[in-house]
């Protein structure tokens, strides 16, 4: 009985919403709107539960005097100040984000926005580090990713097609030097001759390829974004949608019951 009632409510709610998508007539149309209103109300209560859980967690850390207690104290203090200041501005001006609101002018503009910008600027370093690890040419897939990313970045940067030949030339020269230095101690004399011959041919072909990319780089960048990238993104969205449908059916039919624990 303890799990039967939530399972029954989940099944009825999900079944009605699915039927309402295919039969947008009475009484299903009004029921869908009613369920949407209930969803908003339930979401509000879950937000309250989340705030209560967050405050209780950090209060316990302060009470136990743990190592991160100062950060928990700062969180609780800023939460209380934000809540009280927002309520006061909402009562006085009718909206906390009104143009004349002190909450908007001081707290949101001079505190929240700079802190948010700082957080996203720090994320840029993590993204750069992850890109460095992902773009290392360790195999065929990583090499294709590296080449495609380089073409797209040069094609999207203003005046990128102007300095792309020089960038490609310097990059290939550095790669050739590194490969030669790493391979010399491990290969025979015949392999060295072959290796140096291929390296010289590659260096000779660098500049014609660079000049070609200078005229075709924007078109090639647009093609990568509109054809392979768009096709891969559509496949990804289709997979996500199928996974969401499967999970929804498992929840509606009572197969997935982890949310009841």
TrEMBL record:
Q: Which domain of life is it from?
A: Bacteria
For this UniProt record, give its keywords in alphabetical order, as a comma-separated list: Membrane, Transmembrane, Transmembrane helix
User: Can you tell me where the transmembrane regions are?
Assistant: 7-23, 38-57, 69-88, 108-132, 139-157, 163-181, 193-215, 235-253
Coiled coil ranges: none
The name of this protein is Uncharacterized protein
Q: Tell me the organism's taxonomic lineage.
A: Bacteria, Bacteria division WOR-3
